[in-house]
Predict the 3D structure of the following.
Amino acid sequence: MADSTLSVEPALPEDHARIAELTVGVYVDGELASDGYTAELADVAGRASRSELLVVRDAGGRVVGSVALVLSGDFGEVTVSDEEAAFRMLVVDPVARGRGVGHLLVSSCLDRARAAGKRRMVISTDPRMTAAHRLYERLGFTRLPERDWSPMPGIDLLVYALDLS
């Protein structure tokens, strides 16, 4: 259950530096992504232009989580039709873990996708992101192994999906 002092809202341009710091820190420093992915993880303005960038703020207004919700376009990478939405680069500040930040972000993505008329949420994730996999499975996502893919040699991603109807 999410901490009641947390709120989800659209990211503001002044949040971009914090989101970049958080995303690079969690993914690269946490050895969940290669150094070669750092520039894309840090390009918050780029993903904000191609997705709906959401943040969770704590009671003090500090950004403690972020996600990029993709309702259209190629930034979703794993979507194959207009009926699918995706989210990418889900990140939670390590000091805020266990407070429901990730759950709140994913639930918000699901609600927004349903409101946009999407029928399925499809995401790809690194096999090492086991805490995220547990969250997705608790929320009802199931593996879609026939859609697993590799964006580059040596990087193999798992695909999960959730029917939104």
